[in-house]
Records
---
Amino acid sequence: MRVLAAMSGGVDSAVAAARAVDAGHDVVGVHMALSRTPAQERTGSRGCCSIEDASDARRAADVLGIPYYVWDMSERFEQTVVADFLAEYAAGRTPNPCVRCNEHVKFAALLDKALALGFDAVCTGHYARVVDRADGTRELHRASDAAKDQSYVLAVMGPERLARAIFPLGDVTSKAEVRAEAVARGLSVAAKPDSYDICFVADGDTQGFLRRALGEQPGDVVDEGGEVVGRHDGAYAYTVGQRRGLALGRPAADGRPRYVLAVEPVQRRVVVGPAESLDVAHVVGASAVWFADVPAPGTTLTAQVRAHGADVPARVLAADADGVTVDVTGAGLRGVAAGQSLVLYDGTRVLGQATVAATRAPADVVPAPGRTA
């Protein structure tokens, strides 16, 4: 099978490519240049797409003895990931750029180009497992290493693209195992630090990035009663559930901490209040992607709403091809923001994904007939 290996310049993608070679595939390595300033320097674990990363990927390909190319995808990345990131924050939502990158770049633009060039599949260093059933169904599952599992950010790819994806690291037990394998293979990236935070915000200052792109839009910080308790330079710099950096002019009457409850960009307002006001009973998801049949109302499963968050018990209230609403009462979920990704699981299997459109607090939930709230 002809396989295109996406090589970021990190240890995971290098070892994944090596395993694809070991599996007997005809492998070609490609580095996606996503930055419009590729000459930038990588700083520790921050940043991506630097000259250093491209060079590291080339050296790994040389060790593996496979052809290597650099593909410029910066325009696609800028249009579908960075622009979406800015638009979502400007609208008061909280996007996950890794989800959008997997959706629009790695498993859309890259895969489509690979198929057009005659490749059969794309191989990446993501931590996730693919299970092939006897009936030909391919299932996306959590990785064996729960600490590194990336099925959450991959769930947006859908079954058609999963059919053309290979994740050789899905069965490893730890990142230490990957690094040890890289050492054994003579790959110089064995000790290279992982990349954290938002890859295109190299200095880690997300608020500064947003301010430079969107400009200052000063407004009020208000409590639940509408009383002004502070000022801000841009509502876009806040997200539901945030506690730090509120710079409130005065504390709450009861002295307890306050959190962001809502972001209202049109009014240029940020609403703050107590932690319990962040409690979530129902999560409503839109633009659904399903890997299995749409679950019937009453189906019990688990839900994950943050990339590094735990999954929680959930029950389907309504679902169709386009969206889903789940009941997470009793799960202890707080501070779920519109724009986040809602991923549903049956055990380790990914059933589907949707973008959070709204949440309902326990007080907003109408009890069923004959029951009390």
Note: The two ends are 57 Å apart (CA to CA).
---
Amino acid sequence: MEAGTLIAAFVIGLLGGVHCMGMCGGIVGALTLGIRGPVPGERARPAPFLLAYNLGRMTSYTLAGALAGGVGWFAAHLADVNQAQQVLQVLAGLFMIALGLYLAGWWHGLVYLERAGGLLWRRLEPLGRRVMPVRSPAQALGLGLVWGWLPCGLVYSVLFWSLAAGGAAQGAALMLAFGVGTLPNLLLMGVFAARLATVVQKAWVRGLAGAAVAGYGIYMLLVTW
């Protein structure tokens, strides 16, 4: 896989911070406020918990990317490989454009995709409740592993991109790069949640991020065609 593709996935994760605030901000805020130290009444330092939570989340993203990449590779080899790869690349580009419009708040069609993912989430969400309240980084890691499957149009769009990555390893690398891109926003969110919320909710910030992602989707289509 080309380094440029991984960098693009990282940047999309970074720009997706305008969406992460709405989807995961409450989870991260609750995790930060709810952690307790080993001594009753004592608060623990949030950094190890936030790192463990995000490590679990990115692990789930990477696993999902490997599954998607493997499925895409298998599907491509059932038909003409080059033709199937082109079809997947076109669909991935269209999803990137849809994601850009979604991030900017100009179109909300991906909400239906998130609702479909809710069917799986209803089965997984009770697992996250078993490790709450979070009292150790190990519990935060377990929570992150579960919450990595939270229905999210941003994640689903990049996951669809993983279908066209060329294989399980490539799909895993793509989702890992995306997950690393989301990391700065979610780590800062645990410390500066209120201030970040004010910034990312500005229309021009969302519009700029969405336009950049949609622009990359158009670039993907042009390269494929």
Note: The chain has nine helices and no strands.
---
Amino acid sequence: MTKVAVISANGRVGSLVVKELVERGYDVTGFGRKAQNTTVAQTYIQKDLFELTKADLAEFEVVVDAFGTFAPETLHLHVEVIKHLTALLAGTKTRLLIVGGAGSLYDDPEHKTQLVDTPDFPAEFYALAKAQTDALTELRKHDDVDWTFISPAADFQVDGKRTGKYILAGEELTLNDRGESIISYADYALAMADEIQNGDHIKERISVVGK
């Protein structure tokens, strides 16, 4: 049975990823800062992610980084989390999957312009998108870690339904048949679980869009 660690497991995305994995029969350990486990993970460990050690993660075949923060004074932590986790997993066979952002998706086939740098990008989301983009840039430096960065669609819906369907895409902003870049947290968690199961995109950034 594959053992998976989900960091920030009590979060909205993390808890849904835990649910998808447990339902597939994975042995899931959730890590979180709070004492209470609000997930269905079989095991829960209260520990701040910056206090995690190599020994804490040694037994897992997959680690999911579901960390997220929106406060301006903590946005730099997106990069710091990547630095910390890659240092712990460097040179190991443990796969690292990251819940990413959409701002780093490319707006052109030449991959010269990222969504965050386009003229119409919403100003209120710029700082967060830039922090998540910087996190991907940092991640790409680490060839000694088997990472996968999964970007959601531009419209990432917290309370959207689980349709069980999604489009697997790559580095570019992709639209569905209705011309939308949209996906629910629940369908994103489904896509994350599929990638954990299949392992088809090592050292790649992929993206997912709701059908």
Note: The chain has a mean pLDDT of 97.
